[in-house]
Amino acid sequence: MAITSWIRTFPLFQYFIAWTQELFMSVLKTGPVPQHVAFVMDGNRRFARRRKLEVREGHSAGFESLAHILEMCYQVGIKVVTVYAFSIENFKRPTVEVDALMEIARTKLLQIIHHGDLADRFGISIRVLGQRSMIPPDVLAAIDKSTEMTKKNTTAILNICFPYTSRDDIATSMREIVTKSEKHELDPETIDESLLEQNMYTKDCPPLDILVRTSGVERLSDFMLWQSHQNCTVEFVNCLWPEFEPWRFGSILLKWSRSKAVEFRKREMERDQKQL
To answer: What's the helix, strand, coil split of the chain in %, to 5?
Structure first.
C-alpha cells in the first residue's frame, strides 16, 4: 500500500493518469451523450464509520467526490446534472447531523461564490430545487448568492435538490395547477401528464437519461420518481459515494452510449426495410 502511494507521487505516473483520463473523455464524446443525469449520493455516513471518522467528515468527502464527478459530466457534454443533496426526511436525523449538513452546504456554496472556477469554466447555472421554507436563513442566503451569481450561465445546469422529495415535487406541481385553475388561467379539461411535468421543479430540463445511486442500496428513496419512470436508465452501484470515482461513472456512460447506438442502428434498419 505504501509503495503504491509512493509510485503515485511520480510526475510520470501523474502524467500517464492525466493522459489516460483525457483519452477516455475523448472516447466518451464520440458516442451519444446523455443530456440529463441524476445522482443519489448515498454512503457518506457509512464511509465515515468504516474509517472511524466524524459523520461531518464523511459528508465533506462526499462533496469532494461530487466535484470530480461534476467536472467529468460537463467535460463530456452532459447539459444537466441533478443531485439529491438533502431529503425532507433527513430532518428526522439527529440535530447535530442536520446542522452539520446545513453548514457544509453553506460552506460549499460560499466556495462556489468566491472560487467559482468550475461554474465559470463550464458555464454552469446553479439551481436549488425544493422547499425553501425549510432552509435556515444563513444557508438560504448562500443559495440565493450562488444562484444569482450563476444565473447568466447558459451552457449547463446543476440542480441541487435541497430539501426535496419526489412526492413533494408532484404535490407542489398539483398545487400550482389548482391555483392556476382557480384563477381561470387554465381550463381544467386541459390537465394531463404534460401539464403536471410543466409545473414540476425540473420543468426547464431535458428528460432524465440516467439515474445513479451508490452504496449498493437498490431503491430510489423518493427521488425523481416521476422523471425516471420512462426511458431512463437506473444504475445501482455497489460502492459508497465518496468512493465513486470518475472511471466508475465512465463505465456507466459507455454502457448507456452503446445501448443508444444499438437502438439507433435498429431503427435505421427498420426504416430501410420499410423503404424496400
So the answer is: 60, 10, 30
Query: Which residues, given as ranges, of the chain have pLDDT below 70?
Result: 1-21, 24, 113-116, 276
Q: Examine residue 163 and say whether the peptide bond preceding it is cis (omega within 30 degrees of 0).
A: yes
Q: 139-190 pLDDT, tens per residue? A: 999 899 889 989 999 999 999 999 999 999 999 999 999 999 999 999 999 9
Grid coordinates belonging to 29? 464524446
The cell for 262 is 444499438
Side-chain-side CA neighbours of 235 within 13 Å: the count stands at 24
DSSP letter at 77? T
Question: What integer pLDDT is reported at residue 2 of this predicted model?
Answer: 44
* Residue 72 to residue 247: CA distance in whole angstroms: 10
Indicate the pTM of the whole model: 0.88
Helices (H) then strands (E): counts for the chain? 10, 6
- Residue 153 CA to residue 201 CA, distance in Å, equals 19
d(CA 63, CA 68): 9
As a whole number of angstroms, the distance between CA 59 and CA 42 comes to 10
Q: How far apart are CA 69 and CA 74, in angstroms?
A: 9
Which pLDDT score is estimated for 11?
Answer: 62
